[in-house]
């Protein structure tokens, strides 16, 4: 089991991959876990917790979550 209390790059990658899987992102290949780093850990964890708490998402919810995720990417 992953301990998300630890702010590690490995945990960031785990959360990003989980988000991509749960949202069934069509552009998942473009959203590489390596494009995110520990500096945004809390924001990524907040998104992860929202995604992990639901089984289904509306199209507008997916768009909003993906948009927020995009803002956290390292440029």
Word description of this protein:
The chain is built from three helices and no strands. α1 (9-23) runs parallel beside α2 and α2 (41-52) runs antiparallel to α3. It is mainly alpha-helical.
Average pLDDT score: 86
Order of helices and strands: HHH
How far apart lie the N and C ends? 30 Å
- Major sheet: none
How much of the residues is beta strand, in percent?
under 5%
As a whole number of angstroms, the C-alpha radius of gyration is 11 Å
Q: How much helix is in the residues?
A: 40-55%
Contiguous low-pLDDT stretches (5 residues minimum) are none
Report the total helices: 3
How many strand units?
Answer: 0
Shape: globular
Which structural class do the helices and strands define? Answer: mainly alpha
Features:
single chain; 75 residues; mainly alpha; 3 helices
Topology:
Elements: H1 9-23, H2 41-52, H3 59-72
Helix pairs in contact: 1-2, 2-3
Question: Outline of this structure?
Answer:
The protein is mainly alpha-helical and 75 residues long. It is built from 3 helices and no strands. InterPro entries: UPF0435 (IPR009507).
């Amino acid at each position: 089991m992953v301990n998300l209390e630890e702010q590690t790059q490995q945990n960031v990658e785990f959360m990003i991959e989980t988000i991509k899987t749960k949202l069934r992102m069509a552009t998942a290949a473009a959203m590489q876990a390596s494009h995110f780093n520990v500096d945004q850990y809390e924001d990524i964890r907040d998104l992860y917790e929202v995604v992990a708490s639901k089984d289904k998402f509306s199209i507008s919810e997916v768009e909003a979550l993906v948009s927020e995720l995009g803002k956290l990417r390292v440029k």
